[in-house]
Amino acid sequence: MRDTMLTDANLGAHKQLAERAADATTAFSRGLQGYRWPSQTQPYIDALHQHLQLRAAAYRRVAAADTVDEYIAAAQQVPVTTTLTAKVRESLGLPEGTTVRGVNPQ
């Protein structure tokens, strides 16, 4: 098993993962914007798009860290989850999504 603990030696690999997370978040957000949503859902999509842009920017700050301490500080500022996805599902009449214990939507 690979050692995944963040160290000076593997900081570059962790930064690459953060950059990939930013790219994936941006791609997902663009995908949401590329679809025509029902009028009751569009405001939630717009808000989610804005949230995802902030998340991608936060991941890019993590990727730009020069030290392990900077990386950790930046990583602690990444908004991991949001209640907006539940609101999108609700507006579409979909069942609730899976909840993850210990994760508090922001």
Automatic annotation (TrEMBL):
Q: Which organism is it from?
A: Cryptosporangium phraense
Its domain of life reads: Bacteria
The protein's name is Uncharacterized protein
